[in-house]
Queue: 3 jobs
Job 1
Amino acid sequence: MQRAILVLVTVLLGAAWAMAETTLEKIVRTGTITIGTRTGSPPFAYINRQNEWVGFSIDLVEQAIVPALSRTLGKPVKLDKKETAPQTRIPLLTSHAVDLIAETMTDTRSRREAVDFSLTFFVTGAQFLVKKESPIKGIKDIAGRRVAAQQGSTNAKIIRERVPKTRLQEFPDQPTAFQALAQGQVDAYTNDGIQLAGLKAKSPRPDEWKIVGDFYSYEPYGMALRKNESDFRQLVNLGLMEAIESGKYFELYDKWLGPKGEVPYPLTPETRRFLQMQVVPK
Amino acid sequence: MDPRVILSNLEFLIIQGFLGLGVFTGGTLRLALPAIILGSILGIFIGLGRLAGSPWIRIPATIYVEFFRGVPLVMVIFWFWFMIPLLLRIPLPEYGAALMAFVVFEAAYLGEIVRTGIQSVPRGQVEAATATGLTTAQTMRHVVLPQALRNMIPALVTQFIVLFKDTSLASIIGYIDLTKAAQIVNSREIRPFELYLFIAIVYWLCTYAMSRYARYVERRLRPA
Amino acid sequence: MNYDFDWSVLWTGQSGQWLLQGVMTTLRLSTLAWLLAALLGILSGALRAAGSKALSRLATFYVEFFRNVPILVWMFFWYFAVPPLLPQAVREWLFHHGAEFWAAISALGVYHGARFSEVIRSGIQSIPKTQLEAALSSGLTVTQAYRLVIVPIALRLIIPSATNESLNLLKNSSLAMTISVAELTFQTRQIEAYTAKALEALTAGTAIYLALCLGIASVMAQVERRYAIPGMIARAGRAEH
C-alpha cells in the first residue's frame, strides 16, 4: 500500500515537473511537435480519397515551420497530428495535448485572452453555401430559414446575434452539417468562404452548389499557441515569414488553392500585399 | 441504392474503422477488447466492494454504481476528454479518453452483475465452506466466486455486447471507429442509406454472434 | 491545476436559459420517444409471446435487428438515410417542422421499442403457465386471458426492468445532439463553447441528469413497492441488453 502511494506521488510529481517545461523544451525532449488540426475542412486539413491526412495548414507546418524548428533547435523534428474541433481546440491546447493549432482558426481579440496567435496565414470571411437553385443571396435572406453551422463557431455566434430569426441548426462538426445541407434538411450552411469552397470542390457534383453573400465577417486565420511562449511563437512566425519571403508559401498556396489546386480560391492583390507586409526586416 | 460506394471504401471502413489497423488511431475492436477486459477487472472490484462488510468500502462503491448509472455515457466521455487534461495537465489522446471513460462507466454495470452473481450463490455453500474450516477469503476464492462466475456469464456477455455497441460513441470525440469512418466517407460521397445500413449490418453481425453465444452458454449452464 | 473557476457563468448571461431549454427538450424528446417505444414494445412483445408463427417471426426480426445496432448509428440513419426515401411532400413538411427532432424520436423509439419488447417478453414468460391454464379453464378466451390476467401481472412484474430501460432511453436522448437537437448535452457543450468554462458546464449537465435519473428511479421504486406481487418479484426481468 505504501509502495503504491510512493509510485503515485512520484508519477504526479513527474507529471507536474514535466508540465513546467516550455513547448520548445518539450519538442527538444520528444523530437515531435503535436498539432491540432481538422479532418473535414478541405483544403486546409482533411482526409483525401487515398485516406491520407493532408492540407494547406498541415503543409505550412510541415514545410515552413518544422524546418525552422529543426534548424534552430539543432535536431530533426517530427510532426504529429491530432483532430480538434472548435469546442475542444483551446482546452486541448492549454492542457498541452497539442502544441499548436494549425487548421482554420480565426484570430480574434476575445480568443487572444486565452491563447496567442501566429501571423495571419490566410484571410477569408463568412458566407453561405446553398443549392444552385436557392433564392438565398446573402445574410439579408436568411431570416426564418434553416441554416446549419458548427456548434461553437464564430459564424454561429454572429448569426445568432445579428439575425436571431434564423432557424439555426448547430451540428458537432462540418461533415454532419454538410450532410444535412446535401439532403435538404437545411437551406444553407454557413462557414468561412474558403471552407465552403473546399466542400463544394470536393462534393460529388460541385456544380450543384454555389457560395453566396458578401463576407459578413472578417476571418483572418492564425495558428494558435499557448500564452507565455515567446520563443516558440518567434520560431513559428519565423517559419511563416521565411516561407512568405522565399515564395514557398505561394507555392503551397498554389498547390492547394491555385487554379489547379484542390480548391481554387484566388489570392487577391490586397491579401498578397498584406501577407508580404507581415514579413518584417531581418 | 448503389453498393459500389461500400465496395470502393470497404478497406477504409473495415480495416481502419473496424479493426483499427490504418493510418489513424482508431478501430472499434481496438477500443472494445481492452475496455471489456479492463472493465471486467474493475467491475469485479466494484462488485466485491458493494458486498464488503466495512461501510468505508461499501458506501463509496454504492455511490460509484449509482452515479454512473445515472449519467449518460457521452457525458462521461466528455468529462474524461475535457477535464483530465485540464486537471492533471497530462495530454490525453481520444483513444485514452474514450477507453478510460468506457472502463469506468461499464465497471459500474459489470459490478452490479458481479454483485448479483455472488449473491445468487446459496448461503448453504458459504456455511458449508466455513464449517470445513475455510477463511472468508478462501471461501470467496474457492467456493463462491467459481459458482458465481458460472451464474454471471450470460449477463456478463450481455453487458459486453452493450459495451461493444457503446464504442460507437467514441466517434463523437473524433476517434475513428466504424461509425466515424462511415461519417467521413458519407461527407465525401453523400450516400447515407448504403453507408449507415452497411455499418448497421456489421454491428449487427458482431452483436448477434455474441448474443447467440450468450444464449448457448446460458443453455449449457442451466441446471439439468 | 491551472483553471479559473467561475460558477457564475451558469446563471449570468444565457447559460441558465440554455440549460432550462435543454432540459425541456430532453424531457419532451424522451417522453415522445418513450410512448413510441412502449407501443412498439408491447406490440412486439405480445406478438412474440403469443402471436401467430409469422407475426412472431416478424416481431423477432424487428427486435433482433434493431437492438443489436448502436443507437448512435440509428440516429444518423433516421436523420440522414430515411428522409430521402420519403415522398417529397412528407420530406418538405419534416424539414420545416424539426426533422432532427422527429428523427431522434424515431431512432430512440424504435431502438428502445425493441428493448422494451425483450423486457415484456421475459415478463410474460416468467408468469407460471398455471396462471394461463387457470384463466382459460375458468372460461376466458385466449385474448381475454391475456388481457385480464396475464398482461396486468406482467406489467407489474416488469416494473424494475422497465424503469431501467426507460432511464436508458433518457440517457440515450443525449445522443440527439449529434443531429443538432438542442437537448441538455448539446446545451452543456454550448455553454462550454461560449464561456470556455468546461468544468462548470459539465458539472451542471451531469447534476441535472443525475437528478432526473435518481428522481425517476426512486419514484418508480415506490411504485414497485406498492404494486408488488408477493412471491413473484424475483422471477421476472433479468436485465436485457
Job 2
Amino acid sequence: MTEPPVTRGFVGRRRPARPDRLPPGQYDAGEQWPVLAAEPTPLVATDRWSLTVDGLVEHERTWDWAGLRAEPHERLTVDLHCVTAWSRLDTGFTGVRVADLLAEAGPLPDATHVLAHSSTGYTANLPLADVLDHPAWVVWEAQGAPLTPEHGGPARLLVPHLYLWKSVKWVSRLELMDHDDPGFWERGGYHDRGDPWREQRYQGDP
Amino acid sequence: MSRWRTARIASQEHPSTGLVRLRLDVDDWPGHSPGQHVVVRLRAEDGYTAQRSYSIASAPSEPAVEMLVERLPDGEVSGHLHDEARVGDVVEVNGPVGRWFVWDGESPAIAVVGGTGVVPAVSMLRHARDRGTSDALRVVAVARTWEALPYADELLDAGAFVALTRENLDGRVAAPPYPDEVAPLLDALGNDVQAFVCGSTGFVAWATRTLREQGVPESTIRVEQFGVTG
C-alpha cells in the first residue's frame, strides 16, 4: 500500500471539540439540518397514513395514525450521521421502538433482514439485529414539533447508529426477510450496513 | 466498489463570485454517466480528512472530470478549493456515484434545474451533443439573475430554455417559467418522458409541482435536492 496523498495547503477546520461524538470523515453541521432526497417530497395526510409489518412474521400487523401514536412511546435525543458527511448532534425525537412494533407481529425464527419501504417506493435494507438489538424507532416528532414532510413526516424510521439513508422517510412498510436484498441506494453502490463509526459508506468498505 | 483514486487539479477558473470551476485528471477514471457525482477528499499533513460530493459537469467523452464548487459560508472544503487550491495540487476522488439520477443519453428527458443545480444538466447537454441525441433532451434552467446562473452562455448556446426570475433576459420579463413555456418542451418529447429535477429544496418543490401540473407522472420524476432547514 502506498500512503494516501496529502493535499498541499489543506489544514482543515479545527479538530472537533468532541471527537467521541463525530465518526471519521464527518463534520458537525451545528443547528443546520440538511435535506437530501431522491424523489419529490410526498404529502401524506395522517388520515391516509399507515405502517405495515409483514413478510416473515407470525401475523401481519398494520397501524393507522391513531394506532401508532397509541403505542407506548418515548422522547429520545440522538446524533444523526449522513453519508454526505454532515452530522447533527443532540437531535430530539418522539416515537415508538421498532422492536416493540415487530414484537406485536412476531418475527419468525428465519427472519434475518428487514427491507424498510417508503410510500414513495424508496427502500433501505438492514440486518434485523440493527432494529431489534440496537435502539431504533418510528418517529413523528422532531425538536418538539411534528415531523415535517421534507424530513420524512408524518413518520419516518430512525436508526441513528447507521448512516441516515437507512432511516427511511415516509416509512410505510417493514418487510422481514430471510436474506439481504439491496435497497435504493445500496443498489447504487452504497453499503449494505452503513456503520458510520466504521465509515461503511460504499459497497466494498470494510 | 469503494476506491479512492488520486487526482490532480488540471484547471481552475472563477466564472463568477462564489464559484470555482475545477477540472480534475483522475488516475484510471472509469468513466461516468451524465447526472452522476464524485466524492472529493482532502487530506491534511496530520491525516485529517474532509470529503464532499459534487455533481459532474463534464461529458463522458471528456478526459477530465469537471465540477463546480460553490463557496459556502465557513466552508471547510469549498473554502480550500476556492482560496488555497492551485493547478497541480493532488486530491482524492471516489466515484462516479449514483445510478438513479442518470440520463442514458437517448431516452426522451427533460431536466428542470435551478441555480448551481444546473451542473448535471450541463453534462447531459454535452453528452447529447456528442451523441447527436439533442432532440431527446430539453433543459429548463432557472436562476434569479444571469450572474447567478452557472454556465449561462453554454446553456443558451446548447438550446436550453433559460428563465431569470429577478431580471429580464432579452425580451423575456423576469418571472419563473410559465406553464405555456414548459408545455411545448414536453410536447416535443412525446409521452414517455423521464424528468430530472435538481436544485434547492424550494426550487425542487416548485419544479415537481409544475411538472405534475403538466401531466408528468410523479413516478417518472427523479430529484437531486440540496438545502438546509434549521
Job 3
Amino acid sequence: MAGTAAAKDRSQRRQKAMIAEHFSRLARAPETGERAVYTYVPGNLTELVRNFGALPVLPEINALQSGMRGKSRDYIAVAEKDGHSEDVCTYVKCDIGMKRSGNIGPTGERLPDPDLLLLSYTGCFTFLKWFELLREEYRCPVVMLHVPYQGDGVVTDSMRRYVVDQIRGKVIPALEEATGKAYDEDLLREHLARSARAEDDLVAVLESAKLRPSPIDAYFGGVYYIGPIFSAFRGTEEAVQYYRELREEVEERLREGKGPVTPDGDMGEERYRVVVEGPPNWTSFREFWKMFSDEGAVVVASTYTKVGGVYDQGFRHDPSRPLETLAEYCMGCYTNLNLPSRVDLLAKYVREYQADGLLVNSVKSCNSFSAGQLLMLREVEKRTGKPAGFIESDLVDPRYFSAANIRNRLESWFQMIEQSRSGGGAP
Amino acid sequence: MSGAATAEVVARAEALVQDLRLGPVRAWKEGTGGLAVGYMPVYVPREVLHAQGVLPVGIVGGGEMEIIRGDAYYQSYICHIPRSTVELGLNGGLDALDGMLFPAICDVIRNLSGMWKMLFPGKLVRYLDVPQDFDPEVGGRFWRHEIESLAADLEARGARPLQAPSLRESIRLYNENRRRVRDLYRLRIDEPWRVPTHELYLVLRAGLVLPVEEHSAMLDEYREAVLADAERRPLDQARVLLVGSFCEQPPLGLLRTLERSGCYIVDDDLLQVHRWVKGDVALDGDPLESLVNSFLRDSMAHPTRYIDRDEKGRELVERVRESGAEGVLFAAASFCDPALLDQPMAVAAVEKAGVPWTSFKYAENNGQFQVIREQAGTFADSIKLWSGA
C-alpha cells in the first residue's frame, strides 16, 4: 500500500491479496448477487454483516486508499465543486467525489451500490451526516445504530441495553430485509469465536513493541496489521490465519533481534521509542513514515490502531453473549472514550512501552480525534515527564500536508528528547 | 407605549447578554441558595433542572470577547465557540456555575465535555447523549434513563429530588414560555418591521440567564411594547430565512447588518433551545414520559438529529412556506460540522422547491461585515427583482 518500491514482509503480501480478492468480489457482486453493506470502521458489526452472507464496504478505507493512490485530490475537488465545504471532513468529500466519478474502487473496478447503509455511529458525529449524504446519492435503505458515547468513562447497563435493543430490533431486521436471509445466532457465535482468536494474536503482535528493540512499528506498520480485523475480515477464517501468520512472523523477528520493517527494509538502530496519537496522513504516507524511520524513531504504541477496538486493554468478542458483546465492542472503541480515558491510556502507553515521548498528529479532518488534543498533550507530558511533540496534517487532502513543516517540528522534538535524556529535564 | 418602552426592554436584555460574568446568575444564587448549571446549545431538558430548584444557564460562547488563553487549547481549524467557552471558564466568568451540561451537538462539543472534566474537576460535568433512535421503547427508554441519571447527579450536589408534581409545574411554565416565543416568531412573520431580529435575539438570549418566570414576563413586556410602537413602519425588504446558526451564534452586528442590507429575517435557527420542542409538552400523565416523548416526537428537524423516515430538508422547505420567506440565507459558523455537512442536502431541498438562496460563514468574533452586507444586499435586491415587486 505504501508504494511499489517499498519492502514488504509476508503478512503484508498476504493482506494485499486478501484485500484485492475482497474488492474483486465486490466488483462481481452485481453478477453473483452478493449483497453490499456499507458501514464504518469504528465499532463495525462485521461479524453480523457476514452472518447474512453480505460483504462489508468501508468508505473510510476507500478514501484512504484513494489518498494513497493519489486520487483523493481530484475526488475532493469534485465534492467541493458540488457545494461541500472546504471546512469539513475530507474522507466524506473524497467518498462523495469517488462516487460521482464512477465509484471506482482501489483495484480499478467499480464498487457495487449499497444494498444497505449500516450507520453504526461510534465515536464520530460526522458518520451520521456522511450516510445521510450517501442516502441522498444512492436512495437506498439506511439503518441507524446509535452508539452512546462514554461521557463518564464507563459503559452503563442502560447504554448496553440501548445498543442491544437497536441491534435486535432494527439492525438485524434491516439485514434480513436487505439479504433475504434469516438471522442465525449459532453462526454469529462461530464468527465471534474466530474474532476472539484473531484478537489474541493481534494483541500479541502489538505488545511485542514493549521489548527492545521493538520488532514492529505500531503506527506505520500498525495500520497494515489492523487492516483485516478493523475492516471486512473480522470473524473470518482468513483473518484467523492472517493474524496467526503475522504473530509468527513477529516472533521470528524477535528471536532474530530485528527491528521493524520499514519502506526501505529492516530498520537499523532504534534511537527513539515514541507513542503517537491521531490518524496518519495517507497522501504522503511513505514520506511521512520515512521521516521517522530515517531518524531511527519507532512508534511503539499508537491510538489510531485502537479505533477499531482497544483489544490490548482486555476486550475480546465473547461468543457466549453475542449481541451484548457486539454492543460492548461498539462502545469501547478508542474515539468513543472520553478525553480523560484517552489521556489515561496515552500515559499508560508511554510508561508501559518505555517511550521517549508522545507525538500528536493532529488531522484537520477529524474533530473526533483532534478537538482537545492540545490539552491531552499537556496532561500526558505532565504525568509522564516525557516531552511531547505536535504536528498537523490531514487524512486525504494533500493540500494540508507540508513535509518541510512536519520535518522541522519532528527534528525539534527529537532534539527535545535528546536534551531530556542528557539531563536537560523535561519541559 | 412608545418606542422608548421597546428600547428599555431591549437595553435591559442587552445588559444581561453583555454580562459575561453572569451577574444575574450570581444574584439569583445569593437570593435563593440554589444551584446554577450551564448548558451548551442546542437542547437540554431545562424543565428537569427547574423542577429541582436549579437555574439552567445557557452558555453560547463569549462573542467578541478577547481570547487570551482559550486559543491555546484549539487548533486553527476548529470553530470559535469552544475556545471562548474555555476562556470564560478559565477567566472565572463561569465561576457562578456549579456544573456544565454538554448536549450531543458535534465531536467538538462532545470532547469539550471531557476537557471540562479535566479543567474543572470540582464541577458537575455531564455529556448529554440525546437519542438518535426515536422509538419510545428503545431511544425513549435510554433518554429517560439519561434524564434520571442527570437528576440524581444534581440531587447529589444538593438539588431537590426530581418529583412529578414539581416537574409538571416546570413543564407548564416552560410551555408558557415557549408559547410566548412562538407568538413573537409569528408576529415577526406577520409584521417583521415590528420585531427586528437583532432585538428579538437579545430578548431571547436574555432568557438564557433568567429564571423562566422572569423571562416570560420580559417577553410579554417586549411584545406589548412593539405592538404599541406606532413609529415602526414596513420597509421594502426581502423576507429571508436564516439557516445554520444554531450553536456558535453570529455577532449581533451581523444580524443588524443583514437587516440593514435589505433583509427581513422572518425565521431563523438562533437560540433553538427556546423552540426545540415545537408544541406544548403534555401536562397529563407521567411528566417525565411526556418530556421524553416531546423530544422523540415533537423536536425540530435539525442537523444534529438523524432524520429517520422523513425526507431531508422537508421541514426547512415547510418553514420557508410558513414564514413566507422569499429566500434562504445559509449562515454557518466556520468549521461547524453539523451545519456545513448538512448544507448540501438543505441546498438541494430548497433548490428543488425553487427557493433562492445564498451562503456565507462567520465566527462569533467577526468584526467586519462589509462583504456580507454586499452579498446579502445583492441577494435581497435580486429577490425583489425576481419576485417582480
